[in-house]
Amino acid sequence: MNTEICNKSDYPYFETLPTRWADNDMYGHVNNVVYYAYCDTVVNRLLINKGWLNPLEDKVIAVVAETQCRFFASVAYPQILEIGLLVERVGNSSVTYRLGVFKQDSVEPAAQGRFVHVYVDSQTRQPVAIPAAVRQGLLALTAV
């Protein structure tokens, strides 16, 4: 994982997500596993909203190959989160995303994640090249 900690201004794409009561654990903060669900949600919202993924019909789909998360500050229900996304790397069949989890109106991340998708044939699950239109869109979201 790239160890550089990004601030809010480093991310070209954002989604706003509310925390939920069920996200909190017995320690009164969002449980660590929930951050992975936040990241998965944001990546897939991007892909679906841009028209780059229709998981029920596409012949090529993206599956998760790796995830990682570093934590810097606690988050708890009922906070609203702003989750930034940038693309670290676009390979032949894989893409690496960096995601920053920010408390609303904060410029420093509460957490930072890494999420790797591998594009595969939806039937065989064998790696395939990222579709050209998707590749072009992802490259527009790369870190400067």
Automatic annotation (TrEMBL):
UniProt cross-references to InterPro entries, sorted A to Z: 4-hydroxybenzoyl-CoA_TE, HotDog_dom_sf
SUPFAM superfamilies xref list: Thioesterase/thiol ester dehydrase-isomerase
GO molecular function annotation: fatty acyl-CoA hydrolase activity
Keyword ATP-binding appears in the UniProt entry: no
Superkingdom assignment: Bacteria
Keywords noted in UniProt: Hydrolase
UniProt keyword annotation of Hydrolase present: yes
Family: Belongs to the 4-hydroxybenzoyl-CoA thioesterase family.
Name the UniProt record assigns to this protein: Thioesterase
Source organism (scientific name): Paraglaciecola hydrolytica
